[in-house]
Amino acid sequence: MKWNNAAPLPSAAKRNSKRSDSGLKPLYGAVAASAIFIFTLALTISAAKTIENYETDKQRNQIYDFLSSAEERMVSEVAKIHSAIYLAASSIQQHHQQPDLKQRFQSLAYLVLQNNPSVLSLDIAPEGRIWAVYPQISNNAIGHDTSDTLSSREARRLRKAVMGGPYTLYAGGTGLVLSQPIFVSDNAENPPLTPADGERFWGYINAVMRFGDSKMLSGLDILANDTINYSLYCGNVIAKHVYNNSGDPVEKGLKRSFTVDGLSCELRAESKLQQQTPISALFIFLCGLVTATLMSFWAWQQSTAKRQLELLVAQKTKALQDSELQFRELSERSLTGIFIIVHGRFTYTNPTMCNTLGYSADELFAIKDLSELIHHQDYLRIQEWLDDPSTVESPNNERDSQHLHQRVRCFNKAGVTKHLEFYCVTTEYRGETAIFGSMLDVTSQVAAERKITYQAYYDQLTGMPNRASFQQRIKQSIAAASGHQQLALMFIDLDKFKTINDSLGHDYGDQLLKLAASRLKTSLRSDDFIARIGGDEFSILIEDYQDKHQIEQIAQRAINAFKEHFTLKGKNFYIGLSIGICLYPNDGEDAETLLKNADISMYLAKNSGGSSYKFFDESESHLFYSKLDLENELRNALDQGGLHLEYQPQNSLVSGDIIGTEALVRWYHPVKGRIPPVEFIPVAEESSLILELDRYVLERGCKQLAQWQQKGINVKLAINISSAQLEKGDLLGLVSTCLDTYQIQPDRLELEITENSLIKSPTEVAAILSGLQEMGVSIAIDDFGTGYSSFALLKDLPINKIKLDKKFIDAIETDAKDRKIINTIGELARSLQLQLIAEGVESNSQVMRLLECGCYQGQGFLFARPMSASDYEEMLAHSHIID
User: Fold this and answer.
1) Omega of the bond prior to 395 within 30 degrees of 0, cis?
2) What are phi and psi of 70, to 5 degrees?
3) Rg (Cα) of the chain, in Å, rounded?
């Protein structure tokens, strides 16, 4: 068989060549087979590995997409919260000195929490110590010092909001705190524009986000879609695990680190799905032998992968659409205007934005140039940022190309100017650079701020500039003068105004002030700056004058203008002007010194009789300071018991018997000697010492009365009470305490009040007097006939006695009119069943006239001068006392 198939034998060379070729063919075949096997096996393994890597990459991409979306959501949410507390901080900065700061904060906090569900609570912390929390979840936070936390220190150092945490919260749980520092300015001339502009640190406004309640993290759970397990790590220095959506914290998953307002954050995520190897090891080897099957399987696997990829794209597209729908729903329900600008035109506006501006969304989209909406001056300020955000510097001179915070005047569709607060950021939106912004209508706030500014610099009664405005004007004039120009300052006080105001009440006083201010203004030149400094005091700044004589003419013209009477409700009143004048720079080089020296000169002019002017003279200023010294010495005398009482009898004009006693305060200074009451009592009335003086005299008078009572001396004691005690003091409580302390009989005590005390608040005074009479204390009206009270007022007041003023007694012998007045008052007293007593009786002829007029009681030097308690007690021992 072999022999039949054998070919003819070749030559030796050919035989050797064929033998060599036949030996190589198996080798080539083996190599080729090996190469094919290796190639096929490598191709199969490569294909299997490619598919395995695809699944891995698919899960990795899914996780990356989640991390990216989660970061964007967290950053966006924090930016929104940042914007809200930034606006709240601005409002707190502008009203930090207002008494309703806490109510204003709660209103702001309510709006912030309404628009930011991720925020658990807000608090404000002046100087870092928590003062108010909204809502009041826990009282433990009040008074807590937050200034030592790293985030608080960084926020204060950087003058911007910084996120800190994780912290253990007083309301329970763990969370993050976004701290916005607030800086204020003590310089009213240059109020800060933003919370970071002030020179002095005021405190923080903090937004608290608790992980268990955070709407922000619940949004991340939705993104995870039950396929991803993720953990959040946060910290200012070392990131700590603070949250994971399910299972154990992720340790080795994919990571994404980012910073949110100074807080280092890291998201770690891993897939919950178990990765399956799509091709087993055995199938890989079999596919190595069958290339076609391997290639078919690979093609089939690619087709499957393509279908899965298309499904994934569809899911991502739907998720993006759902996210945009959620954003649109939230935006359209927001009370804050929200908009998106691309290439200088609106591409989205929410209903609040449209309602504020009065345009429909389509009308806003059709606007090609934003300058049609924005005031020209404001548009120039923001145009550079709109054109190229990277070219604009932030208020602290740092480049801040992503953020813009401006208050802008815009025109609504009706042409009405609206003041809007804009906070904008630049970002990528659908592949293009876009401006995302929020807008708050602050038109009412601006109007309120202007009103507050007006109230801060203008007097509400007269409409004139006030003291703060006047001081500001002086400083500006001094700065402009630079020592080369003279200025004159007049300090004016209205003579006799206090008497009219105290007698007739504040309504008359206010009307008189307005008339006086108007007359004073008309008497000046148009360029002179006049302001009401306070009470009945005015100041005038004269910037352009030729010499001192011209200043004298201006002052005299003002004084002459007040020689004509003022008419109020059918009554004529006369008031004058006391004017103090000082010159810059001779009499002072700053506003405070000029006002002080002019005030001193005015005081000296008033002491010289009023209705005059006086230039500042350093040598005469000691008179002013002597008044201050007298006030301080009187204060020390009250504290150290340096005053004492003297007693003067009240007598029957018929028999001369003693019917009562009046306590009179006296002051014997250790150095100056006797100081008359006419000198120190006005000083006490002009300060708060008058209340202390009343208490001093009443306590010592009651103590002496108690001693006489214990000795069996039954005498009635009259004590003077000031009008200030009726208006500001607790007279009922003071009298009750004295009666209880010294155990004296109430009917032995009589309180004398001046006629003018009845005018200010007759209803309140009547209630006090009724309370005194219920205790058993008698009431006398002192200095009757010198004030402006109505006789009809006496019938409604619970009083027992009327004291005729000494000026009527002095003229009773020579002036028939005064005798008629005394007759009238006597008839009035008898008709009202009131006692009538005359003070200042010095002669027997006066006694006779008083008896003719129906006055049967008197007090004066004719009977006895005021004397010490011991001398008076000795006199009582030799006198007859009518009880």
Assistant:
1) no
2) -65, -45
3) 47
